[in-house]
Structure formats: C-alpha cells, structure tokens
Write a structure and sequence with these properties.
The complex is a heterodimer of chains A (about 325) and B (about 500). With about 325 residues, chain A is mostly helical. Chain A has 13 helices and 2 strands; from the N terminus they run H-H-H-H-H-H-E-E-H-H-H-H-H-H-H. Classes of the chains: A mainly alpha (about 325), B alpha/beta (about 500). Chains A and B meet through helix 8, helix 9 and helix 13 of A and helix 10, helix 11, helix 12 and strand 20 of B.
Chain lengths: ~325, ~500
C-alpha cells in the first residue's frame, strides 16, 4: 500500500522463493508435488492464517499481541469442556462461544492498552501467562481426550464445502474480510494511520482508544475461533495447546513484510509469510531431515528470510531522504 | 580577505539522477561568521554533510589549513575540528549533559590496573564547557529534562569541548524565543573571538545581518554570489536566492470581515493559560503573537479538545462546542494545522491522496462524513476525486496522489497538511506557525493560500512567532505573555509596541 512498488516487489520475491523451495523439495521427493500434499500444507496453514490476520492488524497499530496462543488454548479448553458437559449443543453455538470468549479476552488486552496506556508488549506478556494459567485452572490440568470432544467440533476439520476443506474456507473468509476491512473500510484506514503517526492521527480526530480496543478484540476473537478449530483438528484439548505459537504467528507477519514499527504491511505479504512457514514445516519431514534438526533448521530459515527482508526494507528507507532533497 | 581556514572549490555531489551540488565555492575564515543562504532544496544540507564527512564529494577540492583533505567519514572531519550543530539536535535523552558532551571519549583514570571512567573530571570539564556556551544548567541534568534551547547549548558545549576550529550552526534559532536567540548570538560572538570559523545557516535575514560578516548564496546546488554582509541588502539576497526579484512575499489584502465565526470566553487551564477571551470573524485573520512558551499553542490545543483540563465557553456559528474531543471540534467546523508538520501533521509513509482524505473519514459528524464511501466501504473513485480537487486547488506539486508525502518538498508537505483540512470546508482554521522551516517561495505560496481562505469567508487564527508575518497578514494581533492576553493591536500598529507587549516591557514601564 505505502511505497507500493517496493512492497509488491518484496512479496513477489518471497513467492519466488516459495516456488523454488517447493520445486527443490519436489525434485528430491515427488510426493511433495501432489494435490494431496498441497491440501495438507493449506490445511496446516489455515489456522496460522487466521491468527496472522488478527496479529497483522495489531502490528499495524505499533502494538503486538503475545497472548494469542494462550487465548487459543483457553478458548479451546472452554469450548471442549462446554461441549463435553452439553453434548447436545449445536456446533453454531460453540463457534459463537469461541469467538465471544476470544473477543472478551482480547478486549481485556485492549482495555489495559487503550485506557490504562500500558505498553502492548507488557500487557500481552502478562495476559499470556494469565490466560494459560486460567486454562489450567479450568481443566484442573487434565486433558479432554478424543472421545470426550464434542462431535460437532471434531467434525469441523473433516467437513468440506464444494470439495474444499472447511478449514481452508473459513481461513479464506476471515483473511478476505480483514483484508477488505483494511483496504476499503474507513476504520481500517484509520488503524493504519494510527500506526503510521499516532500524533497526527489524534489531530484529525481518529478515536484512538476505540480503534485500539477493536483491534485487540479482533485479534482475540480470531484467536478464539482458531482455538475451537485447533481442538477439532487435533481432537484433543490440553493446557499446553499451541504453547509458543504466538512467535510463529509474529514470524509469519514479519516474513511477509509487516513492520513491527507499525503502519506498514499488506495482507498479501502476510499470507505469503504464512505459506512460507507452512511449506518449510511440511518440506523438512518429506526430505527426511532428522526430527532433531527440523526445529533448528526451520528457525534458521525463518531468520534468513527476515534478514533478507529487513535488508530490502532498509534500502527502501535509505532512498527516501535523498528523494526529499531532490 | 584573510587566509581561509577551510576552502571549497567546485564541489559536486550527485545522488542517483539528482545533482545535489553542482559547483560550490566557499571560504571559511578564522574569527568570522559566514552566512549560508539558500532556499530549501538548494543544497545546504548536502553541503553541510559534505563538510562534516558524511558524504564524499564526487568532484572538487576541500582544502583545510592549506592542505587538500578528504574526509572518508564523519569521524575524520570531527578529528580535524569541524563540528556541526544540527537543526534537529542529536542528543541522548537518557544520558546526562556531561555524558552527552563526552560521548565516545569519556575521560578515564587508572583503577587497579584498569581504565575506568573518571566521572568527577567529566562533570567538572563538562560544566566548564556548558558555562562557556552560556548554559545555566548543571552538567548532571538528564538530557531529557532540557528544553530545545538548552539542547542547542549542550551541542555547542560539545562543539567547544572538541576544540572545534570550524563550527557549523544549521538553523540554530528555528525553535527559539527572542531571548534565547540573543544567547545564540552571544555564543557566535564568543566563538569568533576565539578564532573559530563559523558557518551560520538561517532563513531569518535579521539574524544573518546581526551576527555574520560575509555571505554565500546557494541556488540549485551552486554558489551564485557572495560578499560582505554589511554592504548587502535583503532584496538583493532574496533575488540571488530565488533567481528572480521577489518584491513582496505578502499577497495584497482584501478584507471584509463578516459576522463572528468563533467566540471564546474565559479559556483557562490550571497551569498553562488563563482567562483568554476573544472572537474571530469570517473573512478575518486573527494573529496570536508572543514568545515561545507564552501558551499560544497550548490554548489552540485546548480549543480542539486535546487539553482535557481546560475550561471555556466556545461558540462556533453561535452553537456551543464541547472542548473534550478533537472529532467533535472538527465536526463543529474547527480545523487545526499543527506546528510540527512532520511530527503531527503528515503521515509521511502514506500516499498524498490518503493523507488528504483522512480527516474526511475520521470525523463522525461533519459534513463530509460518509461522502467518500459507498455504503460502508470507501470508494477509490470518490476518494481520488476529492484528493485531486485539493491537489489542484492548492497546486500541490506531486507526481501523483499515490506518492508518499515524505517524498515531497517541505513547502508541498505543508500544503498537503493544510489542504486536508480545507477539504472539510471548516468555519475556522487555526494555523500554528505555518511558515516555519519553509523557504521564501513556499512561504509566499502559504501566505497566498491564507489570503484565499479569508476571501472565501473562512475565519483564520494564525499563531506566529514571526512579527513581520503577523503584522502583514493579520487584521488584529493578540499578544500573549505567560498564558494571558496582554494586548490587542489593529493592523498597522508599530512593531516596537507589539514586541514591547510580548516581552513585558510595556507593563514594566507603565507600572
């Protein structure tokens, strides 16, 4: 959007890297090039994509939401417990519950950040621990195992809509809606403006607190939605669900060119970041990298891509003052 | 002319397709101050960076102390004794004044075989340099507690402490009050007396005439003239600067004030200002003149709802306005163009078009709300037409509405910041130091714009620290001092009386 040409150039180069990676892995292991495997990657990435859509909006405001994975675990646990207690509950109610609980947890972040003026990193670091702790309290530390998971929740990831797995449909819907909101919604533009220059945003009458509250509630709602889907996909709910996953979410955003400093980033880029992480994670087992090495290699590849990205960003920035003198 | 300490001949510098410097000649003489004059974009900043070793010139020769030199990096220039004090001061907020002065080269002493920082010596020496720079604060003061003027003093102290032989002052007075500017003048005189060569950059001619001995004019990256300051006159300098004669940068006045647009009664704040009562009519410019810190900007911020503790009765077009929310002030027809263009006005990474439409999206109740959308979504076509209209109306020079505002020149950035408010068709426009930091040509354009606004029946409130500006543009001048309105003048009042009121001399003599 801003400095449009450079951003899309970066996205194009990221996509080229992903394609090269896929072909390279496919050359070593042709099974990687099948539709089956592509659907696997997409299915695997769907939850990440939902979380990234929320996180990206938060990053645009110069904030960060570290509590998403804990929110996901707590909401997932609440839905699993409610579903276990009332097996007759329709799945629609459970989905609404997930979004509602997630949004409420996100709104707590938003209230502390917008009204009490606390730094987002501190607030969400705190609630990250609190939500995880509450998930422990709610379950008493016990697992909700496969046979106790609500049938509707378990059915979600296996359901299809017109031959496309429902998980992918939901993720596409969420990502599309958030992208449209950022692109064509007045509030979306204001969110971006807020991150670009908070002072100027206040002078033009942008309701800063309301927007911050909305943004964290949105991130929370999406984390909650991801929570119930996660429980369905893996047919289990436990306290350490998705522990540490918030960092993968932020990594996908950063790889996709979303600036931690706020105001800069496009949904297309963020989704390329999601795809990149999905492909790397799927490729390593396929080419038979030892499981002991997989995590370290995945991390190193992410680091490399962020470094390349940061380099191109710095070059774009460095060009500006010179233009100004001209 | 005595022997030059630093001599530039035919300096050229190119960035990509832009030829920033195309043949600059310049001589700096010990014990003299040279005025470097030029419009924004004439190459002054690039020249300073070349002198301080930040940029290496592509062609030309720099001679220092009679020898040809090449500064590969900033450190080399500093080691040679060339120091620049920048317009935006470069200060480490969390360090003390002393640490700032000795950053990177703290005095050390031996302790048990190790070299450790000698804090006592650092503070003692730093205090000495600060005193020499005319500063009145302790070397232990954390830099974050220093005001803008004090930061300049701190930087000058740093320059003194490295035994500078050439000191470059890049718009040192831009943000300072009259009194503080006098302090800067004294420092320049002291530097000259010590045999330092001073390069003084400023847009304010009266300052140049006050402290400089010679001048060099830069235009489009080349030096186009120079000479003795005492035999120069302002008209001639302006002609050299812009390459044509500019007889009067103020537009002709056509004023016909109408009914009262805004009436403010007893605008007060617990600490910043008290009992401000005034009104401004349609088709009128009301100026607030005063020293920096008199409370003018604070009062304007209160009007648009950014000072929640403030109280007042405000009426716009005879309707009462609530003071507690910028969105409501905007909805009521009030527009505030802040002083700090880059910091508070423009979204530099945002395209020009999106900058222009932002206030029209944000305010919940004003005339334009919803007119740029179709249903709940923004319409690119309507937004584009809105932005294009303003770009044409204000003659903003931009390649397209899609380029980021940060890539425009200072004058055009200022136009964007003003234009985005005009798009809302406000009743009252408050302009806070609208000509600060922009060159003569851009100033002329901004003044023309103010005249246009008034002709269209807008009420303009002008906050200005530049007396000629206030005197030429305003129909009435309110003088503020220490948070109160102390005097009111009609257009044509003598400058001496206005200055006296602003500095409190009038009161003293009356008492």
């Amino acid at each position: 959007m801003t400095a449009g040409r450079f951003t899309s150039l970066r996205e194009a180069s990221l996509l080229a890297v992903i394609v090269a990676l896929v072909l390279l892995v496919g050359w070593r292991a042709p099974v990687f090039l099948t539709l089956r495997s592509a659907l696997d990657v997409a299915n695997e990435s769907a939850l990440l994509a939902i979380l990234v859509a929320g996180q990206m909006v938060v990053l645009l405001t110069r904030g960060v939401d570290l509590s998403v994975a804990s929110n996901l675990a707590l909401t997932g646990m609440v839905c699993a417990l409610v579903g276990q207690a009332v097996p007759s509950l329709p799945i629609g109610v459970l989905l609404a519950l997930a979004v509602g609980v997630g949004a409420a947890l996100g709104a707590v972040n938003g209230l502390l950040i917008a009204l009490c003026r606390l730094p987002p990193i501190v607030v969400t670091l705190g609630t990250m621990a609190v939500y995880r702790g509450v998930a422990y309290l709610a379950s008493g530390g016990a697992w909700v195992s496969e046979q106790d998971i609500h049938a509707g929740i378990k059915a979600l990831p296996r359901a299809e809509l017109l031959g496309v797995p429902l998980l992918i449909v939901i993720a596409a819907g969420v990502v599309g809606a958030v992208a449209a909101w950022l692109r064509w919604g007045p509030a979306g533009r204001e969110v971006r403006a807020l991150g670009n220059n908070p002072d100027a945003a206040v002078y033009v009458g942008i309701p800063e607190r309301t927007r911050l509250l909305q943004v964290y509630a949105l991130s929370g709602a999406l984390a909650g939605l991801a929570g119930v889907l996660w429980v369905g996909r893996y047919a289990i709910a436990f306290t350490d669900l998705a522990a540490g996953y918030e960092l993968t979410v932020i990594a996908a955003c950063v790889i996709g060119g979303v600036s931690i400093a706020g105001g800069i980033g496009r949904m297309g880029g963020a989704m390329a970041g999601v795809l990149f992480i999905g492909v790397v994670n799927a490729a390593l087992p396929v080419i038979q990298v030892s499981p002991f090495w997989q995590q370290a290699i995945a991390g190193a590849v992410i680091l490399l891509s962020v470094a390349l990205n940061a380099g191109s960003q710095a070059r774009t920035r460095a060009r500006q003052p010179i233009l100004e003198k001209a | 002319m005595p022997e030059a300490l630093l001599q530039l001949r035919g300096i050229e510098k190119r960035f990509g397709r832009t030829q920033a410097l195309r043949g600059v000649d310049l001589d700096l003489v010990p014990g003299e101050a040279l005025a470097l004059i030029g419009e924004n974009g004439a190459g002054k900043s690039t020249l300073v960076k070349t002198l301080t070793g930040v940029h290496a010139p592509d062609a030309g020769e720099i001679r220092f102390d009679g020898r040809a030199v090449r500064f590969a990096r900033a450190h080399d220039a500093q080691a040679a004794g060339i120091v620049a004090v920048h317009q935006e001061t470069v200060v480490f907020d969390e360090l003390s004044a002393a640490e700032n002065i000795f950053i990177g080269r703290p005095p050390t002493r031996g302790l048990a075989g190790l070299r450790v920082v000698d804090w006592r010596r650092m503070e003692r020496d730093a205090q000495g340099w600060l005193d020499a720079a005319g500063a009145q604060f302790s070397a232990r003061t954390p830099a974050r507690d220093l005001g803008l003027a004090q930061r300049h003093q701190l930087e000058i102290a740093r320059a003194l402490s490295v035994n500078a032989r050439v000191v470059i002052l890049d718009e040192p007075t831009a943000a300072l009050s009259r009194h503080e500017i006098q302090g800067i003048f004294r420092i320049v005189e002291r530097l000259k007396a010590q045999g330092v060569a001073v390069l003084f950059i400023s847009h304010k001619f009266d300052e140049l005439f006050a402290v400089c001995d010679r001048y060099t004019v830069l235009r489009d990256g080349a030096s186009v003239g120079g000479g003795e300051m005492r035999s120069a006159d302002e008209q001639e300098l302006v002609r050299l600067m812009v390459g044509r004669a500019v007889d009067n940068i103020y537009p002709p006045r056509h004023r016909a004030p109408g009914e009262v647009a805004m009436r403010v009664t007893a605008l007060s704040h617990p600490t910043e200002f008290a009992g401000l009562t005034f009104e401004v009519r349609r088709g009128e410019v009301l100026a607030f003149y005063g020293l920096v810190g008199a409370g003018r900007t604070e009062a304007m911020l209160a009007l648009i709802g950014l000072k929640p503790e403030a109280t007042a009765d405000v009426e716009i077009d005879c309707r009462a306005v609530d003071l507690h929310d910028p969105a409501q002030a905007i909805a009521a027809g009030l527009a505030y163009v802040p002083e700090d263009r880059r910091g508070q006005g423009a979204l530099l990474d945002f395209p020009v078009g999106h900058n222009l439409t932002l206030p029209a999206l944000a305010g919940p109740r004003h005339a334009w709300h919803g007119k740029l959308s179709r249903g709940p979504w923004l319409s690119a076509r309507r937004e584009g037409a809105f932005a294009q209209g303003l770009i044409e109306r204000l003659r903003i020079k931009a390649a397209s509405a899609e380029v980021p505002v940060g890539s425009l020149s200072g004058g055009n950035q200022q136009k964007v910041v003003i234009a985005k408010w005009l798009g809302l068709q406000p009743r009252v426009v408050i302009l806070d130091e609208p000509s600060k930091g922009i060159d003569v040509g851009a100033k002329q354009a901004v003044y023309g714009l103010i005249e246009d606004m008034v002709r269209q029946g807008l009420a303009v409130v002008l906050v200005s620290s530049e007396l000629p500006e206030a005197m030429n543009l305003a129909d009435r001048i309110l003088v503020m001092r220490r948070g109160r309105i102390v005097a009111e003048f009609e257009h044509g009042a003598p400058a001496e009386a206005i200055v006296a009121a602003a500095s409190g001399i009038a009161e003293a003599s009356a008492a």
